[in-house]
Structure formats: C-alpha cells, structure tokens
Amino acid sequence: MTAQLLGLVLAGGRSTRMQRDKAALQYRDGQTQLAAAVAALRPFVADVFVSVRADQRDDSTRREFKQIVDQIDSAGPIAGITAAQAEHPQAAWWVLACDLPFLDAATLDHLAAQRDSSCDATAYRSSHDGLPEPLCAIYEPRSREPLAAFLAAGRQCPRKFLLQANTRLLAAPHAHALDNANTSEDYWQAMAKLNPTQADTARDIHVQYFALLREQAGRREQTLTTTARTPRELYDELRQQYPFTLSPDVLRVAVNGEFADWSRPLSTADAVVFIPPVAGG
Amino acid sequence: MTRFSFSSTPLDIAALQGSLRDVTCGGFVAFEGWVRNHNEGQRVTQLEYEAFEALAVKEGEQVIAEARARFGIENARCVHRVGTLDLTDVAVWVGVSAPHRDEAFRACRYIIDEVKHRLPIWKKEHYENGDSGWVNCERCAAAAHDHPEHDHAHAHA
Asked: Does CATH number 3.40.50.261 belong to domain A202-275?
C-alpha cells in the first residue's frame, strides 16, 4: 500500500554563503522562496510542513506555516528529514529545498508520476554529476529507520544516503531545474534569467540601525534588495515597513562609513546608516 | 596615536591626564561631562549611550585635528563612554595640553562643542517615573508631527 505523502520544505539553513535568509529571498511577485516552495508542493501532497530550527519558529518568513522543528543541531538537511519522519513515521515525505529558483511544474509532475513506493526513495539524478539530488525527492516510510541509523553513525550527507539506499533515480526533464542558488552571485544570476527588469534595477544594500531607529526597526542591521536609487528613496521605502517617527529632515545619512548626500546614487553592497539627531556629551 | 576613542568601562582619568603631560606645556585644561539627575524637568536615574563608532571615531579625530591646527595646542584627547551610566559617572572626557592656558581653554571648549554636535552618538535617558527617551529624537518626532514647518537643524552641524 502506498503511504500518504506529506510535503517538507527545508528552511532551517543558516544561509551562510548567501549572507541573508535564503527562505526570504524573492524573485517574482513579492513571494518569498519559502512561500513559493510551499505553494509548488501543495497540489501533490496531503499537507505541507516547513522544516525549521527552534530559533526560527517565530520569524516573519516562517511563522505562517506548519512547522517541524529540528531535534538536533548543525546536522544540515538530514536533521529536518529525520525530524519529520519521527513526527509522522507512517507517511512518505516529499522533501524540497527552498533555494531552487528554476524548479518548474514539469519537474514536480514527473517526480510525482514516477514515485516508486516499493523503493526507499525516488529522486532525480543530478544533471551535473549523475549523483542523486536529495533535496527534491520522495522518502518512503521504509527509509526512516535506515536514515536514522545513518545519522546515528555520524553521517550527515543525504546524497550519500540515497546512493547506498534502494533509490529509484530519474533523469530530470530539464537540465537546470534543480540548480540551487547559494551565494549572492547565484541569486543575481538567477534573477537576471527569471526577472530581468528587476535584476537591472534592484540592488543589495546593507542597512545598520542605531538608537531610536534601531528600536523602531526591531533590528540592528539587515541586507535588503531594493529598487531605491538614493538614500532618500531607501528611507521612504523603509518607512513603509517600519514605524519610523523621525522625518528625513532631522536625519543625516552615511554611506560606507562617510557622511553622504541624500541624493547620492546607491549601488549594490553599499552600507547605509541613517543618523538620528545626535546627543553626545 | 589615537586621540579620540570610546570606552565601555569607567574612564581612568589620571592615566588620560598623564598621557598628555609634556615638558613644552605650561597649561592643561580638561572638561568632564557628568551624568546629572535631571533634564528638562524630568528626574533622570540612568543614561544609555550608543554610537556609530566607525564614523564617530573618524569624525572625533577630525575635530581634534581641527583644534590642533586652529589653536596651536600641543596635544588633545577625548574619550566618550558607551553603554549604561549611573548618576555622577563621567560620560565624556576632553583633555588639552598647550604651551599657554588661553589656547588650552579655547581648544577644549571647541572640542567638546563639536563632539556634541557632530558625532553620531545617542543618549537615552531613563526617568524616575519609569519612562525613557532618546534625547533630541522623541521630542523631534513629536514636534515634526505637530509643527511640520519647525526647523529641526538644532542637533546637526
């Protein structure tokens, strides 16, 4: 009998190389990558869960989704998969990463159609190296015990697990459908293909907040992708997002550690600080 | 030598003064900003200082360089506290050594005035009634709301 299929979108990563939360990235339509992955899986599964670390449960990108919290630290995606299998041991899990900007309906349809529940797992063969792609794959309930044993033996690579398990491997319908975006450069390359208008006009800006602005933003810093061309436009944009009470007339602005003009053009990687009225001494 | 710096611990005034001692100098002037128990009709119990240190240090060094060029003093230093301060704590210390007293007084006054007005340093007051507020910011925001035409240039160089 074929086990019920549940969806698990992996969003517990630390996005170290991207330097900001991959789950919150947007390419199109103002939809986060996490929300896009959840929506993509939903037609194929009985329910969708998001795999998170304990400290991510309440963040604004993740809190609206049903969650499964990692039970162990620093083990990567395998921690999410084993936590899901422990929570619903009778279910099969369709595991999906949230950093696959080129994932398309054909790739999902094909995996669903070719699922073989008599195997441990059904997965695609990478178009780059021929190895299994573990993060868009269906793990049957029978993989639960061997996967837990694999992890207990100190091994963490789900690709190596699929290699040694009884995995049905499929050729991907499109060569790059499972290419992931791990770095800021990957992100911009993907954006140039998926949303060229946005790629031409948007830039990554680092913003640091101090004093009253820090309290009102609820954060010390952030990197954001914006179409704002100047600090003035950036502050206007941030005022839509945060309850800033200070009018730009009373602020000064610094870019890259120097006082700057409000109409200075911004480019990617600029560091911007809005300076509230000062009160030293 | 670093002439402007921040400290998250109480200042060692004797050491700061000693660092400016010089055989060519007949005058030394210091200014200390202390935490007092009232401001604008409110009873203050504690202060919190926060700074955009990278830019403030750069600007602080610039202020001292200006004072040296303008008044012909021998040397000057300024240290500003960050973090939580209690009543009577020293929040800022300026010391100037010079051949004669007149340039030392004038340079000291120049440095503290410019530091207060130009450096990205912020002060949050905690009051006896439990309230707190960022000095020059909360009233500014309220004033901007009530009187949009009001000139807010006071806190900026």
From this structure: no
